[in-house]
Amino acid sequence: MLMVCFHHIHFSNLDFSGYGPLTHQRREARLADLWSMFSHIKRFHPEARLVQGSSWLYNREAYTHLFPREYAHSARPYKVRLIGPRC
Question: What is this structure's pTM?
């Protein structure tokens, strides 16, 4: 049986470095944020086999360059679902 579980993750800009959060000066910090997020998913949701992003930030090259090329190139448009099941 396939169980689908949706978790909405919202990133807040808590970066007070004086640089924009997606500038090259903050790239290592954003990579650390993503590492932390995926480590959390792996630890607390070991059954997860897919992580799907949906953000306007995917339109920003500085954001997509934080991900492996294969992930960034796998982006596909989808219908917006405003209400859905949550786990």
Answer: 0.73
